[in-house]
Amino acid sequence: MFYDHQQIEKKWQKYWEENQTYKTSNNTDKPKFYVLDMFPYPSGAGLHVGHPLGYIASDIYARYKRHQGFNVLHPVGYDSFGLPAEQYAIQTGQHPAITTEENINRYEEQLKKIGFSFDWSREVRTSDASYYKWTQWIFIELYHSWYNKSTDKAEPIQTLIQHFEEKGTEGLNANQNDELNFTAEEWKDSSDLDKEDILLNYRLAFRAETTVNWCPALGTVLANDEVKDGKSERGGFPVFQKKMMQWSMRISAYSERLLQGLNTLDWPQPLKDAQEYWIGKSQGAQVQFQVEGHDEIVEVFTTRPDTIFGATFMVLAPENPLVDTITTEAQKAEVDSYIEETSKKTERDRMADVKNVSGAFTGSYAVNPFSGEKMPIYISDYVLMGYGTGAVMAVPAHDERDHRFAKKFNLDIKKVVDTDEDVQEKSFDSKDSVCVNSDFLNGLNYNDAKSKIISEIENKGIGHGTTNYRQRDAIFSRQRYWGEPVPIYYKEGMPYTLPVSALPLELPEVEKYLPTEDGDPPLGNAKVFAWDEANQKVVSVDLIDDNTVFPLELSTMPGWAGSSWYFLRYMDPSNDEVFANKELSDYWGQVDLYIGGSEHATGHLLYSRFWNMFLKDRGYITHDEPFQKLINQGMILGMSAFVYRIDGTNQYVSKNLSENYKTQKIHVDVSLLKGTSDELDTEAFKAWRPDYADAEFILEDGKYITDREVEKMSKSKYNVVNPDDICEEYGADGLRLYEMFLGPLEQSKPWNTQGLSGVYGFLKKFWNLYFNGDTFEVSDEEPTKAEYKVLHTLIKKVVYDIENFSFNTSVSSFMIAVNELQKIKCNKRNILEPLAVIISPYAPHICEELWSLLGNKESVEFEKFPVLNEDYLVEDEIEYPVSVNGKMKFKISLSAQLSAKEVEDLVISDEKMQPILEGKTPKKIIVVHHRIVNIVI
Ligand code: ANZ
């Protein structure tokens, strides 16, 4: 029977949509299971076959879990704010909302063609006002919260105010910007404005002057993870360091919890390692050094206080405020010119440039509190102001950068301990040092030496043990249009949140999407974007009088705001009262399986854990961690095609002749090749671009052969394969099976359209098991043992494979099973019915069709997954090798049902045994059941 995939797939996609087959109910006594994909940014290019890889895997898992009786939440949505739609708006004037809507429609169409079992009714879009209302609400909650280190959680700002009213800052243990000290009286005597200023120092969403990554070409600030090698990740524009007043999120308050939480998660180790590295916990000490002849103290952070005896000089970051006070008159010019020189470098350049040490002497000295020796104080840009205290004690014998600096400036190099292997491993070991023998630490291992010196530092009252994290607070404002407005207005320069009742604060219309002439962000172009405090509404900017009508914040939120909590919104997507009803978020709890790309390791996956922990602290949800198990799917690579253009001409030479010419290798679109071959369709090539209209070709054997290379699949490399084309030709089921068949989910693998005919052939064979010629025909006769064995072998394999996320091997076992059933001409209902259920998570359309042809009225989706019966796998006959005095003599086939004793009797009485025994009685007979018989005579 002809397998008409197009007709079948259309029919079932329509059925699923009309019957809302995959709509998830919240009211059920079934156990829940939450399967989530990282939601896509709907780009203008549409999907290529690399995008659905993870979605197919998660869809198979979601369907499998439904068959197992779980109530599965498997939603989809769009991360729909972002730069590309805005860049397009700048170029063309088209509102980003329109571009976004068009792109989403295209994505939706493409996704629906692949037959995903998404609950489309729960779709969310981060750029919808009904969604970002709650992103703004979370911002307001963060603004009105502080981090209490004593309770180790975020608390409402009222508890902080209460603490100030009762005790001032005494006994306060908070995460803050600056350490403040005041009494309860001083607090009470402060003006309202001063109080607000003080509170801003503690809020989880706060404003502060920060050095930011400023990208003039994009006109915005970028997060660290949006900058790659000093360039913007999107567009590759240069990024500079600039000081600006910015909104920030106090993620650093959560560093330790973000680190500890990793232990509870089933995530790939490289991903955990990346987060651990990003958080960057260092344990050490903060130590104070007296500056000679000054009241000033240099405070350093060191992870190696045990090397303090070898600290021979000090280095401050050029930006350290102390530099000004301690630089001597004689050194001022040198110091100033050095500061000027380094201010041009980005922090990243400063860290990357390890070879060229540079610096300047301040003219002042500090005193080493342990050795009593004088230590010259330098400045150098290898010390960063944003880390630790912005100052180091330099130990050139043990630290490589300090060593390079000492060599350059001819400073003393003293080695402290060199006996303990543990320490040697941690130290850079310089050969040219003088050894100082500190009896104080000799003989101690690394950890003991460290603890001992820290207690000594504490005893001397010159410092204390401390922990530092490399992770910085996250800058939250973007000078962009297409993002969530920040629900803040300014009164006397102080920020105030909008009342929750005024949310959503909608993105205003603007005429231009560029910054204003005054350098304000694009929202500065809006005509109606001011806050009328008295009437509680947004009004025209002309009405701003700073009395009752105030300016609104003009920056918008970063891309990561909306994606940091979307998994919660799916639980209750249309609730207008709360972001998600508590009962529902309790029921759905954590995401049980999250699949997505590894590029989100330190961005999305840290920010969303942070917001989730915050919402948990404030009692809105129950779990600290949002994503229990996570898998990073690998990449699908494309086969790029290239032509060789002869330099300075419009002539193109075929691949195998190209060596004879000086050429340039140019990407051509893979759709310009003939069929699945490497041959270029030269006419299509000429028509592709005006530049190529007059192209001439030097052919080989009458053909132009392109060069091929495996690269990341991407629109920019012209090697994308559109899933729509594959669905058309081989069906969505073919696409799904093939993507899984390509190899292990986590690995990268090249796409090869030719390989699809294999899985398509399998689908046809599978289909035909249910037909006799053109008639659908299954028999109700009881299957044979051999038939059951094929089925149950398959069940066993597939269950194991799905539970271990090994989807490629399941596809091969489907192929084996179908081949075997075809060979033994099996058409029994009791085999073919369960077979359709087993294959349905992978190839849902064909299985729905077969299931309904089998006479079932309901979708195959909720049918119980077939259960393994091991009895069918037991071999009927066992072939026992019989060994006599250690030598194998013959083999004997016996029923597997026999006991060991029965096997023994049958072997001894077998006629082949008689000539071997020669009438003797065996001394010993050992039967290893179902394996071997050993006889000693
Ligand atoms: C003395 C010492 C001896 C150090 C030694 C290291 C090795 P992590 O592990 O990254 O936390 N340091 C401290 N603050 C710094 C800053 N603002 N900029 C650049 N370097 C800074 O590194 C901490 C170590 O880096 C500290 O320990 C300090 O040098 C340096 F054998 O102090 B150490």
UniProtKB/TrEMBL annotation:
Binding of ATP occurs at K715
Keyword set for this entry? Aminoacyl-tRNA synthetase, ATP-binding, Cytoplasm, Ligase, Nucleotide-binding, Protein biosynthesis
Chain span(s) of sequence motif 'KMSKS' region: 712-716
Q: Which domain of life is it from?
A: Bacteria
Show where the Aminoacyl-tRNA synthetase class Ia domain sits.
705-738
Which reaction is this enzyme known to catalyze?
Answer: tRNA(Leu) + L-leucine + ATP = L-leucyl-tRNA(Leu) + AMP + diphosphate
Any idea what this protein is called?
Leucine--tRNA ligase
GN (gene name): leuS
